[in-house]
Amino acid sequence: MRAVILVGGEGTRLRPLTYRAPKQMLPIVGVPMLERVLANLAKHGVTEAVLSLGYLPDRFIAAYPDHTVAGVHVTYAVEPSPLDTAGAIRFAALDAGINETFIVVNGDVLTDLDVTRLIAFHRERGAEATIALHPVDDPSRFGVVPTHPDGRVIAFVEKPPRDEAPTNEINAGTYVLEPSVIETIAPDVRVSVERQTFPALVERGSLYAHSDDSYWLDTGTPQAYLEAHRDILESRRPVSLTTPVANFNWVHQSAHVDDADLSLATIDRDCVVGANATIENSVLLPGAVVHEGATIRDCIIGPGATIGRGAILEATCVIGGGVTVPAGSILRGEVRLGGPE
């Protein structure tokens, strides 16, 4: 089985972290998000994948020069210009020469979806395309998908008001597609799979959907990125780790932590944390330095960033790579420090 991985987005909501790296290359407890996505697909028989690249494509290519990610052989399809979701799927599938049933996933969604079961459902229904669904409390930020009892999609409603949503089953960002879907997508122009391709398939009666309540998280915001780490530290999502979680904290073996107070802290490789510092529900990316007495709560500290002595950072600060926060600073709220290089 082959897959198309959509990784072309700019990750604007995670800036300034995504000025230096695509969001799918940001680590989730020490492992790039992309690797965690492909590791789940590999469990379900995906052996080859094409990365649909648009933003900072060289970062992916440099990171995996042997064309292998989590045991999956990968190739790279770099869009000449932004083509939106359906356009990106078409471009990548043709670039890879895909001519059989294939999987499409959004590279910024972490899930333990049973892809094998989704493929079986797709084939049982004789579907042209099948969407994985996931139930949520508030569907207003997503595309919701009401279905007939057999799973055939009635409509595709993008981001409805919460009190008007016809269902709480949302598009979970994993699809099984037949090659015929590619033929419906116009070439060399922006085409949205959610707003154009799927509604057209609804009219043909060939779009199906299947619900799965396994772990699912869209990591596109700082709050969700922190939640992804917290879920692993609290064992709500079992994953492989190079260093085990201890007391609900994860500290890379190369990091140096003095006598600090840690609670739901992720301390990545080569980080340094000084004495009497407090790190709560926060992520320190590789090479970050937190000096003595600093307090960091509900924040993300970028790679190589430095937090000065006695500084206080609280929800939800995102500090870009290489940025220095002076000693004694007090930062609270939606603070973003750092810009493009």
From TrEMBL:
| InterPro entries the UniProt entry points to | GMPPB_C, Mannose-1P_guanyltransferase, NTP_transferase_dom, Nucleotide-diphossugar_trans
Q: Where is the Nucleotidyl transferase domain?
A: 3-234
The Mannose-1-phosphate guanyltransferase C-terminal domain is annotated at 251-334
Alphabetized Pfam families for the sequence: GMPPB_C, NTP_transferase
The entry sums up its family as follows:
Belongs to the transferase hexapeptide repeat family.
Q: What is this protein called?
A: Unannotated protein
